[in-house]
Specification:
The complex is a heterodimer of chains A (162) and B (431).
Chain A (H helix, E strand, L loop, with lengths): L3 E6 L9 H12 L4 E6 L3 H8 L4 E8 L7 E5 L19 H10 L6 E8 L11 H20 L13
Parallel strand pairs in A: 1-2, 1-3, 3-5
Antiparallel strand pairs in A: 4-5
Chain B lengths: L4 E6 L10 E7 L2 E9 L5 H6 L7 H6 L6 H16 L5 H32 L4 H7 L1 H22 L8 E2 L2 E2 L5 H26 L13 E4 L10 E4 L4 E2 L4 H4 E5 L6 E5 L9 H8 L5 H9 L12 H21 L16 E9 L2 E9 L5 E7 L1 H17 L7 H13 L5 H4 L3 E2 L6
Antiparallel strand pairs in B: 1-2, 2-3, 3-14, 4-5, 6-7, 7-8, 9-10, 11-12, 12-13
Classes of the chains: A alpha/beta (162), B alpha+beta (431).
């Protein structure tokens, strides 16, 4: 059982799809005690396994749709992910689907917060675009601040303005 | 209405790997147009490989598709090793085969349980299906995970960031390290057998086609990572002859290339092709399960591919256990593979069909040219042909039902759009 787990999902070779991975690296670099960080390609079976039994999980992925660099935050323990824009690349089963599958199977953690960062360029071989890199830093800071404050023990409002 | 013409369109194809669009137009009961649309320039990642070291394609191409990284690694390794004239010792070949079994298990389990079964059971998605059939979906996820564990242990992080390399592996596992895997696989084999029985009970549309099946063949094994390329109509070629027999043409509606056999036309790669051409080389357990599931020696109904995929999953578990049982640690995990100016070809059986690579390497060991023909672009013309023939006798169905059935027909091929290209959207139109 992990108390706090931060999962960055993405493909590092697909441009802005690496946003979730970048957030994971930044959170790891902040070295907050009691926080585990995992970089993941989005494979659903392993993801659902990892979610189960965890206390508080932050999941970060690139999404498509909307203004590049915009950040959306969902409390997936409170609401279904119907309104989350599609995952940016082909994670075979999308992140939203994996989470909802976990919910249907009763395997979600006590608390699951999802950040979606809208990407612009998913070209093979490209790095993060500037707006997305900035948003990745912003999301990482928010997560580090929250877990550092111990906010994760309290239920959050269903959806916070971003 | 003087003409009963209609167009069915599905803008976002669900439950295929990646994204795609299907478009079908009919007029007066005749199908006028069927197409799968693909938008991204398909040769982008070939350009991406040019100028890189000859050792890099296994790592880079493995990231093209999240679902079949091993297929990319294995076809790349085979092509480059052939270019370099390197002979891979048998123990390393067998370890690669074991790794590949892991990929078949995880990819097939994903497709069977999460992508294709909902079609047969009348659910919109695996999520809806899980609400009614939780334990079955759990079994699918655990089966998939068993395959992933092989990948993790032999191919990945457990040993080395990416353990596969030109010439073999960075490190070979010990017998002791493989033991827990065997325990897990014994469970998976039972689960796979249950899977065959489960999918055999589905209802299948009455639809058969006289396909030209194309698959690898090897004299001593159900071909996965080595062999010649053969068909049920006399094709029998070395991998190096692939481009003399398969032409890829640009079609107007798509930036992807459609593959056809020279002077023969469309063909089918994947589970049905492997089963038709090599079925007698399956293990006794897998053959028995296939017979029990009502499969004959050749299956021409693409909707039954889910049954063949389940049989192959069972085989992959059985074969992985056999390979672990007989495993001897190689003396060295890899053989030397110094560069030289040359060209090499590789072809292996990705879960969804043959995956072809060709690399030209210069004297400094840099990639001068790369060519990759993924299974989905080989099957694409055949998928369109299936749709055309499938739709016409079913035009009396309402649009939503016909569209749903078309999507199911596309999923018969477990298409990996992210391999064929990156983007695809699905539509059906009756104008």
């Amino acid at each position: 059982m992990t108390d706090i787990l931060v999962i960055g999902v993405g493909n590092p070779l697909r441009g802005d799809d690496g946003a979730g991975l970048e957030v994971a690296r930044l959170v790891r670099a902040a070295n907050v005690p009691g926080v585990e960080v995992w970089e993941h390609g989005g494979e659903p079976a392993a993801l659902i396994d990892r979610l189960e039994g965890a206390g508080s999980v932050y999941l970060v992925d690139a999404v498509r749709g909307g203004r590049p660099g915009s950040i959306q935050r969902f409390d997936a323990t409170e609401e279904e992910l119907g309104q989350l824009p599609p995952s940016a690349t082909s994670h075979h089963v999308g992140l939203g689907e994996a989470i909802e599958l976990g919910r249907a199977l009763g395997r979600l953690p006590e608390r699951l917060v999802v950040f979606g960062i809208t990407g612009r360029d998913f070209t093979l071989g490209a790095g993060l675009t500037r707006a997305v890199a900035r948003s990745a830093r912003s999301v990482a800071s928010r997560i580090v601040a929250e877990v550092g404050r111990g906010d994760t023990q309290k239920p959050r409002p269903a959806r916070r303005p971003t | 209405m003087t003409h009963s013409s209609r167009a069915l369109s599905v803008a976002a194809l669900a439950r295929v790997e990646g994204e795609g669009a299907m478009f079908v137009r009919t007029r007066d009961g005749v199908v006028e147009e069927v197409r799968l649309d693909i938008y991204e320039p398909p040769r982008f990642f070939e350009a991406f490989l040019r100028g890189r070291r000859y050792t890099e394609p296994p790592d880079i191409t493995a990231r093209i598709c999240g679902i079949c990284p091993v297929a990319y690694q294995m076809s790349a390794c085979q092509a480059i090793e052939r270019a370099l004239g390197v002979e891979i010792p048998e123990p390393i070949q067998l370890l690669r085969r074991l790794l590949y079994c892991g990929e078949w298990i995880e990819s097939h389990a994903l497709h069977i349980y999460l992508l294709h079964a909902p079609d047969f059971l009348g659910y919109e998605s695996a999520i809806e299906m899980a609400k009614d059939h939780g334990p079955i979906v759990e079994r699918g996820l655990q089966l998939k995970k068993s395959g992933n564990e092989i990948l993790e242990l032999i191919g990945g992080r457990a040993i080395h960031p990416i353990n596969v390399k030109i010439g073999g592996f960075f490190r070979a596992p010990t017998r002791a390290e493989l033991r827990p895997l065997a325990e897990r696989l014994a469970w998976a084999r039972d689960a796979a057998l249950e899977t065959v029985r489960w999918v055999a009970g589905f209802e299948f549309p009455d639809f058969e086609q006289d396909y030209e099946f194309v698959a690898m063949r090897h004299p001593e094994e159900y071909a996965i990572a080595r062999g010649r390329i053969v068909s049920n109509r006399g094709l029998d070629i070395d991998v190096a002859e692939f481009e003399e027999h398969v032409v890829e043409t640009q079609v107007p509606h798509s930036t992807a290339l459609h593959a056809r056999l020279v002077e023969r036309g469309t063909y089918m790669a994947g589970p049905l092709a492997r089963y038709a051409l090599n079925g007698e080389q399956l293990s006794p357990l897998a053959r028995e399960a296939a017979a029990e599931a009502g499969l004959e020696a050749v299956c021409r109904n693409p909707f039954r591919s889910i049954v063949v995929r389940a049989v192959e999953t069972l085989y992959a578990c059985d074969e992985a256990l056999r390979l672990i049982e007989g495993y001897d640690e190689p003396d060295r995990p890899s053989v030397d593979a110094p560069p030289r100016a040359s060209v090499g070809h590789g072809c292996t059986e990705a879960p969804r069909g043959i995956l072809y690579h060709r690399y030209a390497i210069d004297e400094e060991g840099l990639i001068a040219e790369a060519r990759i023909t993924p299974p989905t672009s080989q099957n694409q013309a055949q998928i369109e042909d299936d749709l055309r023939r499938f739709v016409e006798p079913r035009l009396d169905l309402p649009d939503d039902e016909l569209t749903r059935r078309c999507e199911q027909a596309i999923r018969n091929y477990d298409p990996c759009i992210s391999c064929a290209t990156h983007f695809l959207d699905l539509k059906v139109v009756r104008a």
